[in-house]
Design a protein that fits this description.
mainly alpha; two-stranded antiparallel sheet
Length: 339
């Protein structure tokens, strides 16, 4: 029995991403946490929290789920609850990444648009509280997925029986889990997208209006054009915010759209038909999400100059350490025979 082509792509993609994506997330965490990037502590905390969630996501998806299911007989190495646990952690990371992005955009909105509120809200301690609340809420919100995903026996490409960790077939017969499966679409997709569009739109609008006012005041005072450090800082801030939002939408929107399509399709799509267009797009969207752990580091390197400098400094140090010849131990002359 020939393996579906999408499963072959997954079999090759996830090990490759584990090689590149996990080190990229670790480097991102290290550079933001230790590097001097001239960014506020709130921004550092949010970007580190996003990188940690990305690292856990790729670790769970590539190592503890797909690689083992593709290359190891999971029933011999992992107990059955491991399927539910891995998806519990996976959706915890998914919800965390989604709502941390929303929290970060709201933080930037408050900084730009709310001069009084930012003194109270945009502090390092409050940012830590927000991140902790997001992680805790995501962990609790993802808990029902432990019972939704179970090992389901299927036929492998060589005709042998194997277990695939997927949604249980009797989900519609369990009212609580069925309601949750539909409710998570709102919590994960509808509300975050509306919040992202609203906060980003208000932030950009406020920055544009403020820029025009400042430029008008400057032109009234002096005819010659001078650099405005405040406007330069605002431009960098809006560029970083825009790129993070675009990256999030580019990597997550296909998954969100296909999730809605699955909900509206009747009769329901057979998730075990790996040739169905909806299932193919869903699997490609899952791979696109995992790819974000590597592409986010590239975005930071292109956007933040000092992040790029820290990466180059670290790469030079690593190369010099590898290329440096080992010191030969000094050999002391020992006289064996004495007169």
């Amino acid at each position: 029995m020939e393996e579906p082509w999408i499963r072959t792509v997954q079999r090759l993609f996830y090990p490759v991403m584990s090689v590149f994506g996990m080190p990229a997330s670790i480097l991102t965490i290290a550079v933001f946490w230790k590097g001097k990037l001239d960014l506020s502590k709130s921004i550092i905390f949010y970007l580190v929290a996003l990188a940690v969630a990305n690292f856990l996501l790729i670790l769970v998806v590539t190592v503890f789920r797909d690689i083992f299911y593709f290359y190891v007989n999971i029933s011999l190495w992992w107990p059955k609850p491991s399927c539910g646990v891995s998806n519990w952690i996976y959706f915890t990371c998914v919800y965390s990444l989604t709502w941390l992005t929303v929290a970060f955009t709201f933080d930037r909105y408050v900084i730009v648009c709310c001069s009084k509120l930012k003194l109270v809200y945009c502090t390092a301690k409050n940012t830590q509280r927000v991140i902790l609340c997001v992680y805790t809420g995501a962990f609790l919100m993802a808990m029902p997925t432990f019972w939704i995903y179970v090992p389901v026996p299927t036929l492998g490409p060589n005709g042998t029986s194997m277990d695939i960790c997927t949604i249980r077939k009797d989900l519609s017969k369990i009212p609580i889990l069925s309601v949750y499966d539909h409710f998570q679409t709102t919590v994960w997709i509808v509300i975050p997208l509306v919040a992202l569009m609203l906060t980003n739109g208000l932030t950009v609008w406020n920055i544009v209006i403020t820029s025009r006012v400042r430029q008008g005041l400057k032109s009234a005072v002096a005819n010659k054009s001078e650099d405005d450090p405040e406007m330069a800082r605002r431009r960098r801030s809006i560029m970083l915010l825009a790129l993070i939002t675009i990256s999030f939408l580019g990597h997550w929107l296909p998954k969100m759209v296909i999730k809605v399509v699955e909900r509206l399709t009747y009769p329901p799509v057979n998730r075990y038909n790996f040739y169905h267009p909806v299932n193919v797009v869903r699997m490609l969207a899952n791979m696109l999400i995992v790819l974000s752990s590597f592409s986010n580091m590239c975005i930071y390197a292109l956007t933040i100059e000092k992040f790029r400098q820290e990466l180059m400094r670290g790469a030079k140090s690593a190369i010099s350490a590898l290329c440096k010849p080992p010191h030969s131990p000094s050999i002391k002359k020992v006289e064996i025979f004495t007169t």
